[in-house]
Amino acid sequence: MCKLDMDSKKGGTVMSFLRCTRSALGIWRLQNRIQIETSAVLPQASSVYGFVRSKNTTANHARSVDYQFSTTQWRHMVMGVLAGTGAVLVYGLYRQQVQQAEPKSITELTSLTVSARDNEVKQTYPIFTRQDVTKHKTMADGVWVTYKSGVYDITKFIDLHPGGKKIMLAAGGAIEPFWAMYAVHNQEHIYEMLEEYKIGELSPEDQKVATSDVSDPYGNEPLRHPVLKVNSLKPFNAEPPLEILSDNYLTPTEIFFKRNHLPVPEVDPKKFRLEIMGEGLTSIQLTLNDLKIKFPKHTVTATLQCAGNRRSEMNAVRQVKGLNWGMAAIGNATWTGAKLSDVLKYAGLPEDTNAKHVQFEGLDKDVSGSPYGASISIRKALAKDGDVLLAYEMNGENLSRDHGFPLRVVVPGVVGARNVKWLSKIIVSKEESKSHWQVNDYKGFSPSVDWDTVDFSTAPAIQELPIQSAITTPCNDDHISADDDEVTVKGYAWSGGGQEVIRVDVSLDGGKTWQVAELTGEKQDEGQAWAWKLWQLTVPLPKGQKNLEIICKAVDNNYNVQPDTVAPIWNLRGVLNNSWSRVKVTIEPGSG
């Protein structure tokens, strides 16, 4: 509700007019209310179905409404102009809605009445049937949607929608199924923004039908371990507590980080079919049993890391879009299955293929039926030492539902986003995947790029990840007794592309002095160091210190090193954070 500090009857009248113009002024304010929400998850952060608004809303609203004029004369004159303008805007918007609408009768047309007692706007709307709404599916006819009992004309919002024109999938129908897919819409300002486009009410008969049609796409999710730190419930995304992450070289499946973009599908393994098609191939379908019997069984130990691992540290510098991952969106496991190269050869892929990419599609789909998808280079897919698997086991057991049962692709050394779960289709192509997550997400940009200037077509999709390390114990803000003679620091280190971590340096004094940690892990062939190294350093507790700033940094066999701070690598999606890991601890006075 707009508020103006009026001290005259004329001022009160103006205030009433301004309140009546709220819906009209809302269109004028729209540009200042758009804010890209990314993610993750169409990801949440960049959801194709979301209404979002800009961080400038409050400031711009205050400047446009609450401005105090210096003299009474100017106040009355300007308010008079605003009042006249408001009346014109209201009338114009009213006429537009009446012309677009198809009300049942003339008595149901929109009316505005202002209560002289409390200056509140009481608004009644025309009644529309669901059949009326279905006639408005195009820009030419106007794009209408329903939400609960309301009818909304969102035509003018289509070109401004952050998720692109996939919003048209809801045209002429209910928007609830689309919003149920992404929890980012469950925010008050989203509903407020939608209200600015309201033109009517759904008939009582159709309201009853609408409420019975909506189901929760997340109603059949698997059980998860209660120790996980949940970053998002719908879709489910979670990571283990940092202090237990490095307790095991192989991360237990139950606490291995969960990264889902859509509802987890339930797949009958007996009915499962993997479709393989594309350039130079004979299209075939393989059962799960085919993959287990017809192809040699390979096991690879490989680390998977989310592109957004350690995003929370970027948020501390400047707000980014995406799930607020800590340092545990990474895990190490054994993966067992058929080599992708063997399966493609079986499907007839010629050695001299002109294809450049191998695309993957999952069984997890949005409400439009579009699956999660990604692609890798055919060079990686066919490399003898690439070890790309069509995996059906994780840590010696069948894949869990959260990790892609019954089949997923595992691409060692490559960002987790390309390791498509619930794999249903492989396409050999001259082009990379057209999936949103390949084309318009999971890319890095300069710190100078913001959501007003970003062009995803200018950046390549993330594939191999940079050198990474992090401290898992002690945790930030931990307390250590001065009676302790020693302090033990633990963590993990890993580098993408099969590069081996050869050293981890640790400092207890903010980087002034350094010591080399002890590394543990499996021996791996050159260029195939797919698995992380765990590291540990035990040193005497510095005497006379009240605080410690512990830092770690890793080096791989190509002498790639981590940058020391976050700010120079900050990017609007909060991906690729591999800055020095820093932990501050307090030393408490001892008993002596």
TrEMBL record:
Specify the superkingdom.
Answer: Eukaryota
Task: Give the enzyme's main class according to its UniProt record, as a single word.
Answer: oxidoreductase
Enzyme Commission numbers on file: 1.8.3.1
List the CDD domains hit by this protein, alphabetically: eukary_SO_Moco (cd02111)
Q: Which SUPFAM superfamilies match?
A: Cytochrome b5-like heme/steroid binding domain (SSF55856), E set domains (SSF81296), Oxidoreductase molybdopterin-binding domain (SSF56524)
Coarsely, its chief localization is mitochondrion
Localization per Swiss-Prot or TrEMBL: Mitochondrion intermembrane space
Q: Which UniProt keywords apply?
A: Heme, Iron, Metal-binding, Mitochondrion, Molybdenum, Oxidoreductase
Example of a GO cellular component annotation carried by this entry? mitochondrial intermembrane space
Its biological purpose: Catalyzes the oxidation of sulfite to sulfate, the terminal reaction in the oxidative degradation of sulfur-containing amino acids.
User: In its UniProt entry, what is this protein called?
Assistant: Sulfite oxidase
User: Which organism encodes this protein?
Assistant: Scyliorhinus torazame
Ranked from the top, the taxonomy reads: Eukaryota, Metazoa, Chordata, Craniata, Vertebrata
